[in-house]
C-alpha cells in the first residue's frame, strides 16, 4: 500500500485533521505487515506502540491455565494497543494476534504524545479513537455482567456481523465465554425458533389465503346465481 493511498484513507478517517498534520504524523510512523498467526504484541512484553489497522483482522487474548481466552476483535480502522503498556508502563496481559494477513500503521506512543501536545487536531483524533477502544471494552464487560451467552451471541451478530463470519468457531466461542459445543447448541436453538416462527407465519398466510378463497367462491356463487335469476326473469317476462 503506497503513501498516497494511506494519506487518502487517513484524511477520510480524520476529516478534522489538516493534511499538513497528517503528513507530519505519517513521518513518525511505519507500516507493519503481519502474516496470519503473527503477533503485534505478546503477553508479557512491554511495547508502548499504537497500531491502526488498514486491512485485516486482529484478536486480543490471554492465557489462563493453558487456555486462550479471547477478549476483543479488531478490524479495519480499529486501534490496536495495550493500555497496560502505554498507561502503566507494565507488561501486556494480552497477546494481539493477526487472524488474517494484516497491515497496520504503527507509531511509538511517546512520539504520538509529542505530536498531541503540539497539535490539538492530532490530540482530538487520538481522543476520538481512544473513545472507540474504551467503548468496545466497556461493551464487553457489560455483556458478561448482564447478558446470557445466547444474548451475547445475538448482540455480537448485530455489533460485529462482518467479523462473525471471519473467525473460527473456537475463537468465537472463546469470545462469548462458552465452549464450541455450547455455541453449536445456541445456534441450533436459534435456528429452531426461527424455523418455527417461519412455519407459523406460513401457516397464517395459508389460512388467510384459504379464507380469501372461500370468500371469493361464495361471492362468485352468489353473483352467478343472482345473474341466472335476472336472466330467467327477463326470459319469462
Structural features, described:
By secondary structure, this protein is an alpha+beta fold. It has a single domain, classed as Jelly Rolls. It is built from nine helices and eight strands. The chain has a four-stranded antiparallel β-sheet. Strands 2-7-4-5 form a four-stranded antiparallel β-sheet. A hairpin with a 2-residue loop joins β4 (58-64) and β5. The longest helix is centred in the C-terminal third of the chain and has 57 residues, at 180-236. The chain is globular, with a radius of gyration of 30 Å. The N and C termini lie far apart (94 Å). The model has no long low-confidence stretch (mean pLDDT 85).
Give me a quick take on this structure:
The chain has helices at residues 3-13, 19-26, 83-87, 109-118, 120-146, 149-159, 161-164, 169-176, 180-236, and strands spanning 29-34, 39-41, 49-55, 58-64, 67-74, 79-80, 95-98, 102-108.
Amino acid at each position: 500500500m503506497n503513501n498516497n493511498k494511506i494519506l487518502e484513507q487517513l484524511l477520510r478517517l480524520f476529516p478534522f485533521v489538516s493534511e499538513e498534520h497528517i503528513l507530519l504524523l505519517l513521518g513518525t510512523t511505519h507500516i507493519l505487515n503481519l502474516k496470519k498467526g503473527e503477533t503485534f504484541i505478546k503477553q508479557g512484553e512491554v511495547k508502548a506502540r499504537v497500531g491502526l489497522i488498514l486491512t485485516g483482522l486482529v484478536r486480543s487474548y490471554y492465557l489462563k491455565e493453558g487456555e486462550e481466552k479471547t477478549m476483543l476483535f479488531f478490524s479495519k480502522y480499529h486501534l490496536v494497543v495495550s493500555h497496560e503498556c502505554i498507561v502503566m508502563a507494565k507488561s501486556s496481559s494480552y497477546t494481539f494476534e493477526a487472524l488474517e494477513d494484516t497491515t497496520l500503521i504503527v507509531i511509538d506512543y511517546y512520539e504520538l504524545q509529542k505530536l498531541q501536545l503540539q497539535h490539538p487536531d492530532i490530540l482530538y483524533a487520538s481522543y476520538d479513537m481512544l473513545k472507540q477502544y474504551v467503548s468496545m471494552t466497556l461493551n464487553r464487560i457489560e455483556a458478561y455482567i448482564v447478558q446470557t451467552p445466547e444474548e451475547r451471541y445475538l448482540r455480537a451478530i448485530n455489533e460485529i456481523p462482518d467479523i462473525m463470519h471471519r473467525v473460527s468457531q473456537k475463537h468465537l466461542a472463546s469470545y462469548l465465554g462458552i465452549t464450541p459445543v455450547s455455541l453449536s447448541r445456541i445456534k441450533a436453538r436459534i435456528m429452531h425458533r426461527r424455523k418455527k416462527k417461519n412455519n407459523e407465519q406460513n401457516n397464517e398466510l395459508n389460512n388467510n389465503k384459504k379464507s380469501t378463497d372461500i370468500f371469493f367462491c361464495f361471492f362468485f356463487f352468489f353473483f352467478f346465481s343472482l345473474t341466472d335469476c335476472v336472466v330467467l326473469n327477463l326470459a319469462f317476462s
